[in-house]
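Work Package 3 (structural annotation) set out to generate three-dimensional models for the target panel prioritized at the project kickoff. During this period the team completed the workflow that converts sequence records into discrete structure tokens, so that structures can be stored uniformly alongside our sequence database. As a representative example, we reproduce one entry of 526 residues exactly as it appears in the project archive.
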Amino acid sequence: MKVLSGSCVDVPCTFTHPSSHRPSEIAWYSYSSTQYPLVYSWRTQEIIEPFRGRTQLSGDVNKGTCSLRITDVKPAMNEYHLYPWIDPDHVKHTFYHKTVKLNVQDAPRSVHVSGESSTVVVGGSITLECRSNANPPASSFLWYLQRSGSISSLMFREQSITITDLQPDQNSFYCTAHSSLGVANSSSPFIISGEYQPIISSESSCIIGGRVLWCWCKVQSLPNATVEWRIEGRPPQFALSDMEEFSVLQNHTLRGKLSISKAVLHIGVTCRASNDHGQQNHTLIIKAPPQNVSITLQPSRVLEGQSLLLSCYNHAFPAVLSYSWYRDEGSGTVLLRERSENLYLQVTGRYMGPFRCSAINQIGEGRSDSTLIQVDFAPVISPNSTCSLDHGVVWCECVVESYPVATVIWTAPSVVESSQAVSVDPYWPLRATLTGHVRSGQARLITCHATNQHGRVSLQLLLKDPSAMSSSSLVAAGCGAVAVALLTAAVFYWIRKRRRNGSQDNVGVEVVRYRNNQKKADLRTT
């Protein structure tokens, strides 16, 4: 007998009885080979589930009606074989030779996915089945896969499917069962964990903090991986101290530290992760503030008036985010506007700077030493260069400014048994000296020659005999006195004459310095 789940149904039943006996009670049973389970009875406490509270007689017993009414038919009543018993307390023969089988029709329910295993190696395969309690059985199915929070529909329509493209970590499967009576979805997923060998993330790295090197190794694996550290130049059993472990799903991060006392850019730190499916090694990148910061010049040598490029050279990982340029002035420092790696300058003067630069990345800052820019120029001989003679011994000093440093050569035919010396100070002019004895009867001209790659210059220094200088000085003094007297009288006469004439003319004196440091005075009237 077909009945719908949730419906109310009457199981028809009639009987006849002898006129001598009038039946008063009717009971319904479920067929069993060993017992007599009650489906309906006046003894309600003995009625079995799922019929308790849901059965009653319909019709009049006195008129030979024994029909059973079932209200709210349940799927659990399916395939029960029912039969009545008329007056069971008085009638001893049985009635189970003729039963009614309940065929409860129901839409799919208790839908769920079943599988051979909940873990599969990535690249393998697994068979899944969509199961449900339905009468008639479900005839078509839909499949769904959830990964990383996103649900997608699969192309399968069969009850049993084989999956071969499992992804690492969790793969959650759902299904929907369809029948002629309705549709139902699986209420919970069947989760398959795709196992795989360790994968070390490129985010794994080391960061310098003071004199400590912190290292992170981020590993994805299923099952969980065992992680080992290898430090270059250290024994295999050496490990980072203060180890910490963090885990989110199959993402595992381990952190440790290493005290350092040398250039960390040359330390190799390797993370090794392994599980049942394999292993992976990864050499960690060391992140640090910019290292070896210095200023480079292009061109390396420059002349006044030319352009100069300063670059802030450094080793940095991660990359530099910004640069700063500074110029030292006295006891203070001036921050320049330039924020790029390069600083362009127009060369003025013989010295520029000193300049400094700093490079900043997300880890910290690195600074260069100060760089003073020395501008190349041809030699210049100072007028303070001089010669002196004392008791036949000459001493000369030639003061030269130049960059690069000039080569100094003396030309002195009158000097014998000479010796030369040169003193150089980075912040003062070059001083070249000549000492020796003077030959009598020869011209006493001494010449200083200074040469570098940008030019050559010479200066003649006249060396006179001190005794000749004394007599000449007396004659010159007498002549000078007479000349002054005559000049004074002439000027006085001229002034008186001009006053008479009302003239406004002026008199000027110009002193001209020649290359040999001699002086001449020319009287010019304008």
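The two ends are 150 Å apart (CA to CA).
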